């Protein structure tokens, strides 16, 4: 492999070389930057180019290593950061024109933890306005495109992150997830991610003027989008390092105790009346067979009521959004995002007042039911979406569009309301009339056992392969 091709390496393979000194951090970062400059003009995934400071940092890492200083687990790995998280000296715009000059005075915990691990930030990635769409477009930076083609949305709200990492712009991409914003882009772009459980990754933005609402605090989590499950095992232990600025962080190791006997997996194809597309069903069958062959005990059984939990959770979140965010959206949002929120409130009638307080209490009921179920079934294999990923701007097409984008995504936001970890991994490459498209499935896990979900994702990936190879060949052929 030539220096120019280092961008093709997963983070796990790259760190084997950078930590040993076989390649320099500067060469690893330069290759990723060159790739960014080659493909990002077409994708618009990275909206702030940090090449100069990235190369300065990479050279500093090389000098430190040469002096015999210890190297971090992510030494020289090029990464991207989503523009809704603070990075010192850069704007935390959240895709909103009115916030374009909000310059962070310090790094958020996830940025600090990545730096401590030796990662190098090469750019900041796009998000929709207020990071509250499952698609990525905004008046400040424009639309992000999916590297698989413009027939598929790049997902959201971490759409820039998903498109970047799958196009080879950095080996790791930071994102976050309040209802699916790590998993939607993973599914759209054929990437791998784990939505961590509540309290696993420290979170706080020094630039914020007020504390977030209780549901935003308990449903939103920080994470990474990667090209391989192994890269999550490599990188997440660094991301979960404690930070005193998050008083509710739970400082427990990434790896939990091994479970006795074969791990039981609850397998369900239930889509609650939404049509299950044949390609999604094939992806589920492939994932089931991969886990069975890997030694898991897969049983077709329904988990506790996902539909009620998910819909109740998102309606409760909409109640908090209506109370705490609607005035900001009306004042600073574009007509597009204001119209989308109007339809959100129709699809998910906000729970407010006394009912809101009661639903916050009932959240413990749902979580307890799942906790008891997961004593027998530590993992749950399910669809992520019942249909292949939607087209760009589908959520601007009224009630029908929002229903297809978010209304049927109950497996996604149910996990946020429950605070449970959930991995999303591609299990099939579909050849649809609109073009090739990855199909991802979801694996939910017991509380604090993100490692089990990632292990299962790795077993599925071992059967299916990684999705970036056909993508890169296709992009190269199109040049």
Automatic annotation (TrEMBL):
Gene3D superfamilies, per the entry: Amidase signature (AS) domain
GO molecular function ontology, one term from the record: hydrolase activity
InterPro entries on file: Amidase_dom, AS_sf
Domain Amidase: start-end pairs: 27-451
This protein's UniProt keywords: Hydrolase
Full protein name: Amidase
Lineage of source species: Bacteria, Pseudomonadati, Pseudomonadota, Alphaproteobacteria, Rhodobacterales
């Amino acid at each position: 492999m030539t220096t120019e091709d280092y961008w093709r390496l997963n983070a796990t393979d790259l760190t084997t070389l950078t930590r040993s000194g076989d390649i320099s951090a500067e060469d690893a970062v330069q290759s990723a930057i060159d790739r960014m400059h080659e493909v990002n003009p077409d994708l618009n995934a990275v909206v702030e180019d940090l090449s100069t400071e990235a190369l300065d940092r990479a050279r500093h890492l090389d000098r430190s290593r040469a002096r015999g200083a210890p190297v971090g687990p992510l030494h020289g790995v090029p990464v991207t950061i989503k523009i809704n998280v603070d990075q010192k000296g850069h704007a935390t715009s959240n895709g909103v024109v009115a916030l374009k000059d909000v310059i962070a005075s310090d790094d958020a915990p996830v940025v600090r933890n990545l730096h401590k691990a030796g990662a190098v930030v090469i750019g900041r990635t796009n998000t929709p306005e207020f990071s509250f769409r499952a698609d990525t477009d905004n008046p400040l930076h424009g639309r992000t495109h999916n590297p698989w083609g413009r027939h598929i949305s790049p997902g959201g709200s971490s759409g820039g992150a998903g498109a970047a990492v799958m196009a080879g712009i950095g080996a790791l991409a930071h994102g976050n997830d309040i209802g699916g914003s790590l998993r939607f882009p993973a599914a759209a772009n054929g990437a791998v991610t784990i939505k961590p459980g509540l309290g696993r990754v420290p979170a706080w933005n020094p630039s914020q003027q007020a504390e977030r609402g209780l549901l935003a605090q308990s449903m939103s989590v920080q994470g990474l989008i990667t090209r391989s499950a192994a890269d999550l095992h490599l990188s997440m232990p660094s991301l979960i390092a404690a930070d005193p600025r998050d008083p509710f962080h739970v400082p427990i190791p990434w790896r939990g105790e091994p479970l006795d006997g074969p791990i039981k997996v609850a397998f369900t194809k239930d889509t609650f009346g939404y049509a299950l597309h044949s390609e999604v069903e094939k992806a589920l069958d492939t994932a089931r067979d991969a886990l069975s062959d890997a030694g898991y005990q897969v049983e077709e059984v329904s988990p506790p009521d996902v539909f009620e939990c998910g819909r109740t959770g998102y309606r409760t979140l909409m109640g908090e959004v209506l109370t705490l965010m609607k005035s900001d959206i009306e004042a600073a949002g574009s007509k597009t995002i204001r119209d989308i929120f109007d339809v959100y409130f129709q699809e998910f009638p906000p729970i407010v007042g006394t009912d809101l307080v009661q639903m916050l209490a009932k959240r413990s009921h749902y979580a307890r039911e799942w906790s008891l179920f997961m004593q027998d079934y530590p993992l749950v294999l399910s669809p992520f979406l019942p249909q292949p990923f939607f087209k760009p701007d589908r959520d601007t097409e009224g009630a029908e569009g929002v229903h297809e984008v978010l209304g049927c995504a109950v497996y996604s936001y149910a996990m946020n309301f429950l605070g449970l970890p959930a991995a999303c991994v591609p299990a099939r490459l579909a050849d649809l009339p609109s073009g090739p498209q990855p199909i991802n499935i979801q694996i939910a896990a017991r509380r604090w056992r993100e490692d089990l979900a990632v292990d299962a994702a790795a077993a599925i990936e071992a059967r299916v392969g990684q999705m970036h190879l056909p993508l890169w060949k296709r992009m190269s052929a199109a040049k």
